[in-house]
Amino acid sequence: MKYFWLFLGMVFLGGCLTRTYTIEKPRVDLDIKGNQGYLTGTPQPAKKKKDLGSTRKISVVEVEFGSHQGKELKKKEGMISPESFSLDEEIEGIEEVDEVETAAYKESAEKTYKYYTVQKNDTLQKISRKFYGTTKKWKMLYEKNKDTLKSPDKVYPGMKIIIPMERGD
To answer: Phi and psi dihedrals of 64, rounded to 5?
Structure first.
């Protein structure tokens, strides 16, 4: 039976990340406060306490199910490592950046808007995926169209909404 549980544990925890460690915390249960449950009268004489110490040790076991490969960066061929360059090094050919170039860059980063007519079964997430390639920008679409949309859930076919676009798109 012992081997069965060991085998079962290995099967279920085989692909898991397991961490164990010990924490030492102060004991708060040693402080005697309040009337200790007595409303009237006197409490019984105090019993001799065991020598418990002022701290307690807690063993913690953490188990993470699923893959944990996404947390670690995998080196791919052609990736630039941080060791290959330094911020202190000068870049050849660049001496100084003009204010005019910076202003021109800011102007090119200004947003323009497109109008989009909502189709059947469209949601803000689907519209976001269609224009930006991700569903995570639906909140921005809702913020830009608050005057048109009563709620992010109430998007109906035929509505015209504003889609902020970066220049060059």
So the answer is: -110, 120
User: Please, which residues bridge with residue 117 across strands?
Assistant: 160
Nearest to 46 by CA among 70, 58, 30: 30
Give CA 37 to chain center in angstroms: 45
110-166 maps to CATH 3.10.350.10: yes
Domain residue ranges in the chain: 1-26+56-65, 110-166
Count the Cβ atoms, other than its own, within 10 Å of residue 144. 16
User: 6-64 pLDDT, tens per residue?
Assistant: 776 766 666 677 778 888 988 877 666 666 666 676 766 666 666 777 888 888 887 77
At 137, which amino acid appears? K
